[in-house]
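for ur thesis appendix - Retinol dehydrogenase 13. copy paste whatever u need, i formatted it the way the template wanted (i think)
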Amino acid sequence: MTATTFGPKTTGAEAAEDLREEIAGKNLIITGTSLGGLGAEVAHVLAKYASLVIVAGPSKERQQLTIDSIKIALPSANVRKLILDLSSFDAIRVAAAEVNAYSEPIHVLINNAAATMGPYKETKDGHENHFGVDHLGHFLFTMSILPRIRAARSPSYSPRIVNLSSSAHRRGGVRFDDVSFDRGKAFKTMLAYAQAKTANILFTKQLAKRLKGEGILTYAVHPGFILTNLARTIPKEHMLAIGAMNEEGEILLDKIAWKTPQEGVSTHIVAAFDLSIKDHSGSYLADCQLQNDSVAPHASDPVLAEKLWTLSEELLGESFPISP
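the 3d part is after this line
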């Protein structure tokens, strides 16, 4: 299989086998790696070829379960846990300090974690949970570990940052004047999720612009519709709207192009390693292909991308002075 034949039914194992020479020798961090989710799935696939896979999440026990499951299948895999609570700025800074103390450079960061859908909830720093975890948490973690990502650069290699987004970004943009939905009074789960997924794309685009001169590449990915642990928390009204569920709450497996977890993580792997997209930093991928034309205007506007960067720094209380 060649890169040009990757598509919606390509599995992560197939993509990784084809890109194994690019994966070999690389050190990776993947956030959101509890068993049953896409992060654990992509960690399993990449551990076969990578030099080091770092699984990051808030629970030491869950990360160890993921490591144990990888080691059962691949006893020689080099896997390390990182305790990373994306709902706490203080915890993120502690985790970033640990990463920055590594002797190894970080070739690829896959920001895969996402907050569980549900009623209004705030992070430890008082931000709406989806925006706080999916965007602000990853923004702070990414910017804080840039020294180790920069350390992976060479004349022949450009490190990559991959941000998990979703086609659901089309349902709503960033509410710049009220990202926390009036502290829950105006909260709607799918609008909060859409805002966060839009933010992931805008962050990707602005990061690509600011890091262009440094040889670091960024991509946003939509993995497809997959019945992961997170997907099972999608509100019924949204599942009804997209034809994925009937009124009785039964999942309609024949009405949507559902993917297996293996088919979902293939786009992560293409974004992280495929050389054919190296000249398209800042792009959005779905079904293992560049799909920038499918991005909503509110997620592709460079002015909004710059505005989000400024807002993020204000909410974090920290400035990250890298410029285009």
